[in-house]
Amino acid sequence: MADLDALRARFVRTLEAARGPAACPDPAPYAEDLLGRWQEPQRRYHTVAHLTAVLDHIDVLEKYAHDPDAVRLAAWFHDAVYLPERSENEERSARLAERALPEAGVPAARTAEVARLVRLTVGHDPADDDADGQVLCDADLAILASPPSAYAAYTAAVREEYHFVPNEAFRAGRAAILRQLLDLPRLFRTPYGASEWEATARYNLTAELEMLSLPPGDAS
Predict the structure, then answer these.
(1) Angle, nearest 10°, between helix axes 68-77 and 48-61?
(2) Contacts of 168-176 spanning 24+ positions with Cβ under 8 A
(3) Model's pTM, two decimal places?
(4) What is the tens place of the pLDDT at every residue in 170-186?
(5) How far apart are alpha carbons 11 and 101 in whole angstroms?
(6) E strands of 10-57, at which residues?
(7) Under a CB-based contact definition with an 8 Å cutoff, are residues 135 and 62 in contact?
(8) What does the alpha-carbon distance between residue 193 and residue 138 come to, in Å, rounded to a whole number?
């Protein structure tokens, strides 16, 4: 289980660092709103556990970021709006950041950067000179480099989120996503991600894709 008190404290620290020393609204209501969103009942993978993991991975990668506070805020918002049956979750999450962060005291330029980073998680394909985008995308995709049992739990949770999709349609859609990821020249753009996560992630993705290509009765 995720430690909600620790998450609240992490959000408060990040927000206060991102908005500077001027008098600003109490960060607690913003933390509670976001935590409430991340605990919605339709979520199985995109939960506070995923949020915690992404934040932990950003801690590992922060030395590569130009603006670690913006990257952390983007992690908080990147799946804040999440309905599995909708395709515009990232855009709606970015718009939420654009509304909430100025009210919370975050300057316009940093708010714009947070929203840009959230939108970048649609395709996880940051530019070569986009250090902040690389850190966020690597942190978000780090689950792909998990050990076998954790990777299996991840894929099972994703399937549970899409429980309303028939098996054949889900397998086809999931396979398309895996191919899209495997077609990227590199899954991970930071030096750490490239050295520590790339090979394992590609192995996991390829193995899952091969399993999805088997007739349902043979995928055992």
Answers:
(1) 160
(2) 171/212, 171/216, 174/208, 174/212, 175/209, 175/212, 175/213
(3) 0.94
(4) 999 999 999 999 998 99
(5) 12
(6) none
(7) yes
(8) 6
